[in-house]
Amino acid sequence: MIENFKLRIAIIGSGPIGEQHIRAFKKNSKAKVIGVYSRNLFKAKKIANKYKIKIFSNHLNNFINLTRPNLIVIAIPILSTKNLLLKLSKLINKNVFFLIEKPVGYNLNEAKTIIKKIKYPRNYFVGLNRNHYSVTSEILKILKKEKSKRVIKIYDQQSPNNLKSVHPMKVLKNWQFANSIHMIDYIRLFARGNLIKIKNNLPIKNFYFNKKFSLSRKLYFSSGDIIEYNIKWNLPGPWKVEIYTTSKKIFIVPLEKAEIIRVSGKKIKIKEKKNKIKYGFENQANNVISSIFRKKKSYKIENKVPNILDAFITMNYIKKIYN
C-alpha cells in the first residue's frame, strides 16, 4: 500500500454504536469514513450530514458499489447480523475486512453457521472493545513478563429481566452470549494454555433468563492457570476481575481502572482517559487499522484485534460455563 493511502471505511448501522465507530475512525489520519448505510434512509442521511460523509444509502448492493470499502463496520441488532454477513460475503473479496459488533450470532449454533458460510474468517474482526482498553493492554504487558501460575477471579452480573422492553426474547434467552461475553472474554485474554476441565459448584436446572441465581465455575488450564468465574443473575453485584500471581495482585474494578500491588507493597494505578468516544473504541479503531496495514506491532498480544475465530473460543467458554 502506498504511503498516502487511506482505508475506505463503510459503516452499516445508524444507531448510537455506529456513530461511536464513526467518531473513532475519523480521528485516525490513515482512514476515511466514506459512507453510511441504514435500512432507514432518513437516518442514514442524518448521520452522513452530521459527520460530513459523502455517501448514504438504504440499498446494500448500491452502497457497496459506491463506497468500494476496505473495511466494513457492522453495528446493527444481533438478530440481523447473520443474514447481512451472508449477503455481504457474496459481494466482497479477500481484500475487504469487517469489524462486527459482538456477539456474531445470538448463540453458539448461529455463530457456527456464520463461520461455516463466510469466506476468509480471519478478515472478520469482532468489536470486543474491552480488549482495547488501555488498562487491559497495560495488564497484558505486565503479565507477559510473569511466568508463574495465575489465579484469575471474574465477577459478572447480568439483569436481563430488566431488559424485556429493550431486546427481543430470542436475545434475552441467550443473554449470556449477548452480554456475559464481555466478562468471559477475559478468560481468553488472561488464561494461558488449553482448557482441561470445569468444576461446577451448582448445575443450572431449567435455565431461563428471568430466574434469579448465583453460581461459580472453576476452569483449569494446561498452563496451571485457574479461572474462578462468578455470576449474579438478576441479582445485584459488580463487574470486576482479580488476578493473583506469585509476585503481584491485580484488581480491575470498575473495568476502566486497575490497581497492581507488588509483593514489595508498591502500588501502581492505571485508568482509562476520559473523552467523548466510548471507552476502548478509539484504540480499537487504531488497532484494526494497524492490523489491516500489517504493521508488525499489531501482532503483539496487547494490541491484537480479536477475529470471529477468537470470539468463537469465548462463546465456547460461555456454552460450557452455562451448560
Quick take:
This protein has helices spanning 16-26, 41-50, 60-67, 78-89, 108-117, 134-144, 169-172, 175-178, 181-190, 281-292, 308-322, and strands at 7-12, 31-37, 55-57, 71-74, 97-101, 124-127, 151-158, 195-200, 213-221, 226-233, 240-244, 248-252, 257-262, 267-271.
Can you tell me about this structure?
This protein is α/β, with parallel strands linked by helices and 323 residues long. The chain has helices spanning 16-26, 41-50, 60-67, 78-89, 108-117, 134-144, 169-172, 175-178, 181-190, 281-292, 308-322, and strands spanning 7-12, 31-37, 55-57, 71-74, 97-101, 124-127, 151-158, 195-200, 213-221, 226-233, 240-244, 248-252, 257-262, 267-271. It has 2 domains: 7-129, Rossmann fold (3-Layer(aba) Sandwich), CATH 3.40.50.720; 131-275 and 307-322, Dihydrodipicolinate Reductase, domain 2. Helix content is 33%, strand content 25%. The strands form 2 sheets. The protein has an 8-stranded mixed β-sheet with strand order 8-9-10-7-11-12-13-14, covered by helices on one side. Strands 3-2-1-4-5-6 form a 6-stranded parallel β-sheet, sandwiched between helices. Strand 13 (257-262) and strand 14 form a beta hairpin. Helix 1 crosses helix 10 (281-292), helix 5 packs antiparallel against helix 11 and helix 9 packs across helix 11 (308-322). It is globular. The protein starts with 6 loop residues before the first strand and ends with a helix.
